[in-house]
Design goal:
The complex is a heterodimer of chains A (about 230) and B (about 300). Chain A is of the alpha/beta class. Chain A contains 7 helices and 10 strands. The C terminus of chain A is likely disordered. Classes of the chains: A alpha/beta (about 230), B alpha+beta (about 300). The structure holds adenosine-5'-triphosphate and magnesium ion (MG). Adenosine-5'-triphosphate binds next to helix 1 of chain A.
Chain lengths: ~230, ~300
Amino acid sequence: MAGANHLVRFENVGLRYGDEPEVLRDITFHLGPGSYHFLTGSSGAGKTSLLRLMYLAHRPSRGLVSVLDRDVAMMPRDELPGLRRRIGVIFQNFRLLDHLSAVDNVALPLRIAGGPKDVIREQAAELLTWVGLGDLLDAPPRTLSDGEKQRVAIARAVINRPSLLLADEPTGSVDHNQGSRILRLFEELNKIGTTVVLATHDRTIVERHAHPVLHLERGTLSVHRNAGAAKGGT
Amino acid sequence: MFAWRADLAPDRDGSSRFLPWIIALMVYLAGLALAATMVLEQIAGRWSASLRGSVTVVVEPSVRDGGADIDARVEAALGVIRTTPGVLSAAPLTMDDLASLVEPWLGEDLLSMGLPIPRLIDVALDGDGGLDLAGLAERLETAAPGSRIDDHKIWLRKVLRLAHAVELTAVVVVALIALAAAATVMFATRTGLAVQRDVIEVLHLIGARDSYVARQFQGKAASLALRGGLLGLTLTGVTVTALWLAARDLEGSLPPAVRLAPPFLTGLAALPLAAAAIASITARVTVMRFLARML
Ligand SMILES: Nc1ncnc2c1ncn2[C@@H]1O[C@H](COP(=O)(O)OP(=O)(O)OP(=O)(O)O)[C@@H](O)[C@H]1O
Ligand SMILES: [Mg+2]
């Protein structure tokens, strides 16, 4: 990543929905390539909103948002898809497509990027098997438990080997064992260079891992070094 | 059959239920308009073939400035006509021919009563454009006062003009139907876009281009339109066959003249494909314009 000092860069960012007061105010932070950050804050603090800015679902109301070295506000629409394909997102409410099977949901990013069909399905099936859903490849999402949906969502987010992985409460619906497994997957992806931001309510996760914390409180951000944290960020 | 497997939720917006029926109706109407055009064209063509290549010369019974006796004037007219270049042959209708022509209107005894009636000369022309009708008329007037040319072409031209006007109307009707079909698809697509906004956002966030999303809508619209189109085509086939059988039962002269012409059949077969193409293009334009407003 020569020349790219910051994979994600926010300078004095504000975000408001419609005419409401800003839900994010004066947000400034940088994420280095290969870094791993937790994003914490009470419910309604703005975690999802901040992630939405990072995965280009919104343009900031003010300030500078730069993702993968591109200024989001200045970007022409037709260049967004290319950038988005390098970002993997695990949505808070999964956002699986109801009428597609589990394996087709996972395969979606590959299908959108284009590629041979059989290879795509094979890869998706392999990844689903890895997250323990090998028996549910053709199940429609509505028949899955929340924990199973979450794992499908995770598989969909990582199948394209994104440079930036944004996870919004990825362990909220799974048991402790599954949670640990998912966190290990993120650690592995981080080791091979994926930049990770993981939003969570769960204090124990934050305490067990030595990653810096982005903490939101009523729309403003503070950055904390976590016990012994050494990696990435400012 | 013709089902489109898409990333979009099927049937959530109901358009997949009503769209094929509306398209079926439209294709049916367009098919009937085409069929009417075909029948009209063939009848007009037949008339035009039978009337082309002949004119009738009329010799009036009495002339104010006291022309010669009518038989002499018919002879004089024949002399002029037969020496005119472009004329194949000319023959006066006999008194019997004339009698049978006027009998239905004026009764049997007309000729025996000695009433003056005009004489007709049937003139067969060599080809269509060769004869100088104005020149002939002039020479006839000199040689046989009280004679004039009754040109079928004048009448024929009027009939053909009417036939073409009707054909043009049919074309306009088909064009309007195509417009209405496009509008229907546009509204159905807009409904679909609103209903599926969430799915579209997910597709975008995963990196889908507008054209990818548009293809989903295009495929769906085209497949629905094709299904409706085939239904409409079937209805057209049934109706045309029924009308044709009914016309044949009349023992009129119409059915032998009306054949299922290959260009007509091709046009008819193309209707469902045209409907699918219109649906696809309309869906694409609608979706692309809608998505341009999203991030
Ligand atoms: N689409 C929206 N339109 C208007 N207001 C919104 C919208 N999305 C979020 N908000 C508001 O923005 C604020 C931050 O919401 P956000 O979802 O970012 O919080 P969060 O930290 O993710 O909460 P949680 O932990 O419950 O997921 C809230 O007050 C919320 O009501
Ligand atoms: Mg949230």
